[in-house]
Amino acid sequence: MAGESGKIDPMYQFKIEPLAQLNLAGYDVSFTNSSLFMVLVLGALWVFMAGGMKREMVPGRWQMAVEGVTGFINNMLTANVGPEGKKYVPLVFSLFMFILMANFMGMMPFGIVPGVHPFTITSHLTVTAVLALFSFGTVLVVGFWRHGLHFFSLFVPHGTPWWLLWLIPVIELFSFMIRPFSLALRLFVAMTAGHIMMKVLAGFVINGLNAEAAWVPLIVSFPAFILMIGITLLELLVCAIQAYVFALLTSLYINDAVNLH
Amino acid sequence: MPQIAQILETYASQFFWLMIVFGLVYFTIGHGMLPKVEATMDARNRKIADDLAAAERARAEADDLGDSGEAGLAAARAAAQAKASDAKAKGAKDAEARLAKADAEIGVKLAAAEAALSAATAKAMASIETVAADAAADIVAKVSGAKVTPAQAAKAVKAVMSNG
Question: Are the beta carbons of A29 and B34 separated by less than 8 Å?
Answer without folding.
Answer: no
